[in-house]
């Protein structure tokens, strides 16, 4: 079925479009772009995007879909439904499943499940076997199965020599290496940011240095090896500074942050709120300011959610025992749009962080609305005010710190491959 | 005058004899007059433990549960005695022998206990925040008997009671707390309580054991014990957990004792009638020399006062008595 999106405002940074244009979608591809009212409507389903922005489908480079192994938390079906509800047409899913995605069988299984999913799924393979940090996973096999990035996310690769060899080896395939920067000797049994709040609450802290030392290490290793490095979930001012300096020196490093790191601080943990427990943890106001500046000046290229579903039972009870992680697919757009109101990002910048740049970094032939491109389109109402109601989420999970929040901006329609 | 419940009438006219919250979770944020109410109430209950028949009918018919997720002889026995001397029915649950070993969650355990219609649940847990979690989900009163590194409110109350008893006041005193402040719920509760009551608190220990932001809790920090105890009215020693050596927080007990142990020389630097305190159990020869420990009867007074303070807390939470004008 053809689709004609009319009266909308197209923002496509990749093709430098920022204009009131209509789009015709045919056979799953972008068929035509034209001035408002100039495209023929015959046979097409009409979508009226008046007052809305029409952008290349959003891409979340960092989600946990939990399948195989943890289907009680989320499945590829429910996670992609959440993605679509949040405006994402593509997600890149992390390999800390059970079994870990360190081989072709698991990657192919994920792709089979993704065949009937609501959004496109791009599996990320593990760096080491079982993500144990010891032996390299068979990267060639993972690449052949479809992985274009590797990560041991959830854990760091603690042994610098193993990380070095992984980075060197990745060059055979131009595989993106996504680093979870955390020195586990420093983070220890910590459950929140180390600082005034952790002292008051009597909870063990994770110092910011635990992230900074590994960001520095992995940047050095990327310089040594020449691989393409992407720093996941940046949470500290120190990391932002290191990445900025590295980019200025010409190191091939990119970085992502998550909406909770530019919206919340460690204060959200007060009252032992497990919905504010994630790794890396929420930090201080200084870190939030540095991350916003990093987004503004381009140091941080991507906003990804690190969508980490858990069952409510697991997040209930003693703070120490609750697993780390919060979901984010269905609140990312609303939270990111606050940055527009605050003057941190323009609308075009937002689309860059949520679509254009993830596509470039992950080397997906996406993130654009040029003629011939896949018809992955997101229509966003940038002005609609809405209240977050976790009980209505498409995700299986409910573990969000934003339940009840008033947000502005929401994806109204997500088109994947020309299908609504 | 208070209604005669078999205790000596309380000399507080027209005041409601109950705490502002149904629970006692911590000393942080507790107003001065509430702390004073507990200490004054404890003073009247202290007599009960001196009598031949150590019982008053105040909490007769009330049910008290000790739900201890962490091993404890001292605190649990103290709460048990406090409840029994008030004539309450007291049950002890130690989780190593309960369905917790079968994987029952904290909430399910507590709800099951509450379903048996308990009035007061006393919780000790290794996780900070566990009693707070229960307090919002249970109708019973929850008393925090120590949660992780967070608070141990009845310990701080009995410490303040003991100091007030011996030195006549809390306001204007200098109190030095020495040891592993980072991991100490006793230190935190005492810092909150003593500063609310107008005392000046100094904390001392190796930098590895002083938590960040301690100054925001109104305590000054220093690493030199001689300096910390200089002129102090009270020296409160904390127990050194020997596992902290394995975690690399200090190189060994020999050096720890030399730098942070309380010996006669350091006691001599304190104020003339200074008190030495310790929440127990003591590591003789580590944080406190045997010599000092043996000449410090106050440490045992803390134990005696503990029962009285816990009786006061249970009495006030059960809202057992309202003063009549």
Can you describe what's shown?
The complex is a heterodimer of chains A (420) and B (325). With 420 residues, chain A is α/β, with parallel strands linked by helices. Chain A has one domain: TIM Barrel (Alpha-Beta Barrel), CATH 3.20.20.140. Chain A is built from twelve helices and 18 strands. The longest helix of chain A has 17 residues, at 209-225. With 325 residues, chain B is of the alpha/beta class. Chain B folds into two domains: 32-152 and 306-317, Aspartate/ornithine carbamoyltransferase (Rossmann fold), CATH 3.40.50.1370; 153-303, 3-Layer(aba) Sandwich (Rossmann fold), CATH 3.40.50. Helix content of chain B is 37%, strand content 14%. Chain B has twelve helices and nine strands. Chain B has a five-stranded parallel β-sheet with strand order 7-6-5-8-9. Chain B has a four-stranded parallel β-sheet with strand order 2-1-3-4, sandwiched between helices. Chain B is globular, with a radius of gyration of 20 Å. The N and C termini of chain B lie close together (6 Å). Residues 1-15 and 320-325 of chain B have low confidence and may be disordered. Chains A and B meet through helix 6 of A and helix 4 of B.
Salient structural properties:
heterodimer; A: 420 residues; alpha/beta; TIM Barrel; 12 helices; 22% strand; globular; B: 325 residues; Rossmann fold; five-stranded parallel beta sheet; four-stranded parallel beta sheet; 9 strands; disordered C terminus
Chart the SSEs and their pairings.
The complex is a heterodimer of chains A (420) and B (325).
Chain A: E1 2-6, E2 9-12, E3 17-26, E4 29-35, E5 44-48, E6 53-56, E7 58-63, H1 76-86, E8 88-93, H2 104-114, E9 120-123, H3 139-145, E10 149-150, H4 160-170, E11 176-179, H5 184-187, E12 192-193, H6 196-201, E13 205-206, H7 209-225, E14 229-231, H8 237-248, E15 253-257, H9 259-263, H10 285-296, E16 302-303, H11 332-341, H12 347-361, E17 377-387, E18 406-415
Helix pairs in contact in A: 2-3, 4-7, 7-8, 8-10
Chain B: H1 32-50, E1 63-68, H2 74-85, E2 89-94, H3 106-114, E3 120-125, H4 130-135, E4 141-147, H5 153-167, E5 174-178, H6 185-196, E6 200-204, E7 219-222, H7 225-229, E8 234-237, H8 243-246, H9 253-260, H10 264-269, E9 275-277, H11 290-294, H12 298-317
Parallel strand pairs in B: 1-2, 1-3, 3-4, 5-6, 5-8, 6-7, 8-9
């Amino acid at each position: 079925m053809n689709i004609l999106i009319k009266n909308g405002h197209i923002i496509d940074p990749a093709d430098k479009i920022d204009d009131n244009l209509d789009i015709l979608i045919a056979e799953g591809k972008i068929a035509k772009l034209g001035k408002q009212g100039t495209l023929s409507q015959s046979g097409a389903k009409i979508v009226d995007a008046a007052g809305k922005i029409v952008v290349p489908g959003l891409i979340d480079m960092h989600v946990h879909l939990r399948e195989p192994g943890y289907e009680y938390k989320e499945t590829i079906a429910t996670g992609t439904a959440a993605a679509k509800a949040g405006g994402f047409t593509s997600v890149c899913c992390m390999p800390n499943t059970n079994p870990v995605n360190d081989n072709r069988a698991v990657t192919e299984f994920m792709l089979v499940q993704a065949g009937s999913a609501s959004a496109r799924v791009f599996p990320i393979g593990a760096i080491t076997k079982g993500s144990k940090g010891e032996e390299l996973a068979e990267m060639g096999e993972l690449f052949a199965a479809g992985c274009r990035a590797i990560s041991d996310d959830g854990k760091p690769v603690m042994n610098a020599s193993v990380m070095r060899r992984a980075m060197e080896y990745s060059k055979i395939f131009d595989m993106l290496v996504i680093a979870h920067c955390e020195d586990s000797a420093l983070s220890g049994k910590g459950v929140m940011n180390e600082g005034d709040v952790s002292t008051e609450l009597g909870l063990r802290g994770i110092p910011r240095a635990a992230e900074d030392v590994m960001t520095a290490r992995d940047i050095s290793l990327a310089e040594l090896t020449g691989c393409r490095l992407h720093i996941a979930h940046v949470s500290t001012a120190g990391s932002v500074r290191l990445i900025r300096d590295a980019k200025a020196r010409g190191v091939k490093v990119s970085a992502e942050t998550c909406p909770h790191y530019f919206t919340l601080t460690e204060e959200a943990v007060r009252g032992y709120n497990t919905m504010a427990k994630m790794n890396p943890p929420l930090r201080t106001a200084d870190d939030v300011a540095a991350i916003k500046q990093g987004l503004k000046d381009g140091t941080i290229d991507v906003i990804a959610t690190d969508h980490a579903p858990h069952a409510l039972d697991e997040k209930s009870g003693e703070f120490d025992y609750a697993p780390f992680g919060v979901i984010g697919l269905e609140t990312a757009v609303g939270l990111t749009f606050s940055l527009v109101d605050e003057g941190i990002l323009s609308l075009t910048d937002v689309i860059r962080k949520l679509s254009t740049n993830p596509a470039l970094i992950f080397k997906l032939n996406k993130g654009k609305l040029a003629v011939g491109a896949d018809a992955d389109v997101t229509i966003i109402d940038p002005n609609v005010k809405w209240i977050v109601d976790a009980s209505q989420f498409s995700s299986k999970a409910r573990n969000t710190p934003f339940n009840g929040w008033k947000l502005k901006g929401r994806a109204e329609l997500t088109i994947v491959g020309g299908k609504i | 005058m208070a209604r005669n419940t078999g205790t000596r009438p309380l000399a507080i006219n027209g005041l409601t004899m109950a705490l502002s919250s149904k629970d006692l979770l911590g000393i942080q944020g507790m107003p001065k007059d509430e702390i004073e109410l507990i200490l004054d109430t404890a003073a009247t209950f202290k007599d009960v433990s001196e009598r031949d028949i150590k019982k008053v009918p105040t909490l007769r018919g009330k049910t008290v549960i000790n739900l201890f997720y962490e091993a404890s002889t001292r605190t649990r026995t103290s709460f048990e005695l406090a409840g029994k001397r008030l004539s309450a029915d007291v049950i002890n649950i130690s989780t190593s022998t309960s369905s917790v070993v079968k994987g029952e969650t904290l909430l399910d355990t507590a709800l099951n206990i509450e379903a048996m219609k308990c009035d007061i649940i006393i919780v000790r847990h290794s996780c900070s925040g566990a009693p707070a979690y229960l307090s919002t989900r249970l109708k019973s009163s929850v008393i925090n008997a120590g949660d992780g590194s967070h608070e141990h409110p009845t310990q701080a109350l009995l410490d303040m009671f003991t100091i007030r008893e011996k030195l006549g006041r809390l306001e204007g005193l200098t109190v030095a707390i020495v040891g592993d402040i980072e991991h100490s719920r006793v230190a935190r509760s005492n810092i909150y309580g003593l500063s609310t009551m107008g005392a000046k608190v100094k904390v001392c220990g190796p930098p590895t054991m002083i938590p960040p932001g301690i100054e925001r809790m109104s305590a000054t920090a220093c690493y030199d014990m001689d300096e910390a105890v200089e002129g102090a009215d009270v020296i409160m020693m904390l127990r050194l957990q020997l596992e902290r050596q394995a975690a690399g927080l200090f190189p060994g007990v020999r050096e720890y004792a030399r730098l942070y142990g309380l010996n006669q020389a350091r006691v001599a630097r304190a104020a003339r009638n200074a008190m030495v305190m310790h929440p127990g159990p003591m590591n003789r020869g580590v944080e406190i020399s045997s010599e000092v420990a043996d000449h410090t009867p106050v440490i045992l007074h803390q134990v005696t006062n503990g029962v009285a303070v816990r009786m006061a807390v249970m009495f006030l939470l059960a809202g057992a008595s309202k003063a009549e004008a």
